[in-house]
Each structure stands twice: as structure tokens, then as C-alpha cells.
Amino acid sequence: MSQTEKFSPFAIPLKMGVLIALVKIILSTIQYQFFAEQMTTNLVVSFLSFVLGVILLYVTGSKQRKAMGGFIEIKQAFQAMFVAILIFVIVGFLYDLLYQHVIDPTLTERIKTSTISFAEKMGAPQEKLDEMAEQFDEQQRKSTDIGTLSLSLFSMIVWYSIIGFIMAAILKKRKPIVDSYN
What we know:
- This protein is an all-alpha fold.
- It contains 6 helices and no strands.
- The longest helix is centred in the middle third of the chain and has 30 residues, at 74-103.
- The mean pLDDT is 88.
């Protein structure tokens, strides 16, 4: 960074937040299109999305430290990661809602059918299958409630923030104190 360039504490977090959001949107789309009905693969794709998000979050803090001359305090590292977290969690959350309610409103029904079909193949009795269907429908009704949606969004921000804080502690690097008496 040259002398004439000014450091912006939000430039890297904004770019990385958008990048992470795009990666998560692509993975969510792949997951919804191809793997939503396959429980094991769905879990693997979800885990991969989480791990990539964490790695890119670490890259955000690392880039921020480099841009600051190789030194960063926990507060500065966490601030950078928190901005990125807010962007990718909110954008990803909104995309998931858009996908499930506008792009592919049959997604939930496909997942329900797949889940019940799997239980049926495993030999679950009909009354258990009916109970599962009822519980699934009830859970879907609750999941569209504004309070539940808000809690879900808040929970994701909190979990990623905890991870971000841990990474900020790992990334911190203080400037050495110069002894002015020598």
C-alpha cells in the first residue's frame, strides 16, 4: 500500500463478505437443486459450506492484518470479520428464503417426501410415518413465523461471531514496543 492510499477498515470485510455470500449462495443452490432429497449428501454439502465460510472468514482477518502492515489487535480483526459475517449471513439467509418461497416453492415438500420415503424404506410403521409427516408440517408452519426467522438469523450471526472471535484471537499480532530509552 503506497503512502497516498488510505487504509479503509471496511474495504476488505465488505469484499470478503460479498465473496463468502456468493460462495454460500452457489453451494446452497447446488444443494437445493441436486442434494436436498439425499440426507447424507445434503449434510456433507452443508458441512462443506460451513467449512468454506470459516476458511474465508479467516482469510478476511488475515488480509486485514496484512493491509494494516502485519499487525492487528483482536478488536480490529474481529471488527473486520464481524462486518463480513453480517453481510454473508444476512445475504445467505435472504437467498434461502427467496429460494424456498419463490424460486422453488416445492423444495420443502420434496424434502418431506424424501424423509418419509427414507423412513418407510427403513421399515417404519405407518403410524410413525403419519406422525413424522405431521411433525414436519408443524415445523414448517413454525419456521415461517417472523419470530422464528429472526431467532434463526440471530443464532447464525452469534455462532459465526464466536468463531470469528476465536480466529481474531489467533490472528492478533501486536506491534513491538520500541524502547525509547536506548
